[in-house]
């Protein structure tokens, strides 16, 4: 099975060390462009653009990088609860058209109550997933060309439809990650690819089996992906040295503050990540070559594969054997590590090639929409 390998755009910051401003970089458009072009040049199929109040807006970042890339796909955050599903569908179709079919979407329900409150979302965990399910049902149907009337508990629309369809048909793929039962139910019903953070293989296998079973009960199949950091070097000894160096300037006070911050999250996935290290520097290798040190101070994906190229490739292959076909990788700093991963890991894997997207019939000459209602398709 050819693997889809994605990289990461660090719109929340980048540098050589975690938990300190030492060695930090200016993450401006020029730097993000460097990373995107490097990822494309070395063979990554796409990039994940993160979301949250600590990040630049993922949609605007993606739009700004379309003209300076040719094949790279952009996995952009879709945020139910902070935008209407109809507007989100229109934006998604536009991004897909402008990029000629290079748009992918990552459904993010959020897990930090403080951040959600700042966005005007005051739903608890169960209610957020109810709202996300309703949002996604409308978003999918509108993108697929339907005129949608929907009266839900959280979402109500009448006559929702698109004038300009996306390039990818029936619509761009939807990615999603979540570890709770509600999240798995949503994934089984509505998404194309279920993402997990980098837990030990046995835990990942359990989640995959659960989602696969739930999807099968609905007559569906779901693909699987995983989000991991990578610390790869010429030798495994060097890789472990650099893993330790990455957190060399993280003090106990910073770890304690991060742990307190994580504790307020109602995200089951974040709780599982935090439990892997429990705020301790001891025993951070939680599975062979799987290191939880990143998660001491970073929310979200907190584990890294550590080793030389063949070793990291073997660990990736172990996850692939569980049914995972998409790997979203990253490393600090993200520019240099994109090259390092491609040079040391790619030769040991079957990496899917990323050919230029072909324009479909969705991109065609057409006049201006008349009366905000229809697009003329012939000359009278």
Q: How is the main sheet built? A: 8 strands, parallel, barrel
- What's the overall average pLDDT, rounded? 92
Proportion of helical residues:
25-40%
Q: Shape from CA axes?
A: globular
The radius of gyration is 21 Å
Residue share in β-strands: 15-25%
What's the order of the H and E elements? EHEHEHEHHEEEHEHEHHHEEEHEH
- Domains (count): 1
Query: What is the CATH H-level superfamily?
Result: Luciferase-like domain
**CATH topology (fold) name:** TIM Barrel
Q: What is the CATH first-level class name?
A: Alpha Beta
Q: How many β strands by DSSP? A: 13
Assign the structural class, choosing from mainly alpha, mainly beta, alpha/beta, alpha+beta, or little secondary structure.
Answer: alpha/beta
Produce a short descriptive summary.
The protein is an alpha/beta fold and 380 residues long. The protein has helices spanning 29-42, 58-65, 85-98, 113-118, 125-143, 181-190, 201-217, 236-246, 252-263, 268-277, 309-321, 334-344; strands spanning 4-8, 46-48, 73-78, 103-107, 148-151, 156-160, 174-177, 193-197, 223-233, 285-287, 290-291, 304-308, 324-330.
List the helices and strands and how they pair.
Blueprint: E1 4-8, H1 29-42, E2 46-48, H2 58-65, E3 73-78, H3 85-98, E4 103-107, H4 113-118, H5 125-143, E5 148-151, E6 156-160, E7 174-177, H6 181-190, E8 193-197, H7 201-217, E9 223-233, H8 236-246, H9 252-263, H10 268-277, E10 285-287, E11 290-291, E12 304-308, H11 309-321, E13 324-330, H12 334-344
Helix pairs in contact: 1-12, 3-5, 5-6, 6-7
